Amino acid sequence: MRLRIEGGLVVTMDASGRVLDPGVVEVEDGRIAHVGPEPSAEEAEARSAAGLIVVPGLVNTHCHLSQQLGRGLADDVDLLTWLRGRIWPYEAALSEEDVEVSALACAVEQIRNGVTTIADPGGQHVDGAGRGLERAGIRGFLGRSTMDEPEGVPESRRESTEETLAVQDELAARWDGAADGRLRFSYTLRTIFNCSDELIEGSVERARSLGTPLQMHIAEIEAENEHTKATRGTTTVRHLSNLGVLGPWFLGAHAVWLEDEEISLLAESGAAVSHNLASNLRVLGMPRVADMLDAGVLVALGTDGAPANNRMSLIDELWAATLLQKGMRLDPTVLDARTAFAMVTRNGARALGIDHEIGSLEAGKAADLVLVDPRTVNMTPVHDAVSALVTSMKSENVNSVMCAGRWLLEEGQITVLDERELLAETQERAEAVARRAEVRT
Ligand SMILES: [Zn+2]
Description:
It is built from 16 helices and 18 strands. The protein is α/β, with parallel strands linked by helices. Strand 8 (139-142), helix 4 (161-175) and strand 9 form a beta-alpha-beta unit. The chain is globular and about 65 Å long. The chain starts with a strand and ends with a helix.
């Protein structure tokens, strides 16, 4: 039976930026069947969205599913302590069941923030993460933390280039296209500190043949460029360009320490950047997002992982990302609301290579959408809906979330599982993992 969502203000985020007030979105068999100011002639079950804003499901282009149990385990520490003293021991202590719960809790937090697509830039126990996402009903790209150079890496995590590629090939065969196509697999590289050129080249080749993005953390800290200069003779982005790795298939995370020429290389190649404001500010620095946009780089947003951000809200990221660029440029016109909201919708979809499927409300695309209720004291009054979505929306304004035609959140209630039970298990497992990892905060 077709579902007709009617009476709401519809922010389509299509190429012309159509806003319909009121508008109608019709859903059938998991797809958007019709969008317009008037209903179609088809018979449908009506759902009133009067007073609500209908937007495309948001896209989180950088979200570490296996780190959710580590929230709060690495606060107020420098980057090396963060990684070697906290995150690697935490990751080494995870079981596959822990990761399933971690991914599930992460997905539920994302759903509550209006997110319907998550890209994991590489975690542990991908089978557990895949089961977690499958249970949550969300769309996602799975990835496995990938390194082949052992410096500083715990013994248990050391793998050769061939081994790490073979494990990913196997995961790609198992998960790419799973859960009715909602799940995809993505080849990932942790950072250039721990990845050989052979691994980088093997990964890009596989990513291109699979047709999903190659994800990599790039230009995170100044010392990374120093390291790349010492080992490869130039900075990370220049080196990746020389290797032929940059292209529309490449999704670089963070990209904090870039020179003008590197921004041009990213733009010319069609590569995408995932900007993760909170974790950048906390440990890495202030990326030149406005400069990247001016140069034509495709920029999307992500939350990063719970131990780097704590507050895994793409809505908060959206708001704060605009402020940072305005402040850096001392120019309040920079990163306007329409540009910013595109980052979490159509740009996110393009960065993941699935803009034909998601990212806007258009007939034929997957039925991934969010009903936002602006009738709260933080969001009322609304003069310009898109502006309000960026500047005043908070997680609590997310009323209902649909992914592939199925409601995952309905009028504030998670429909796919018992959330209280999940939270109790999350707390219990997180404490046990921290004990096993011997992480002391
Ligand atoms: Zn990351």
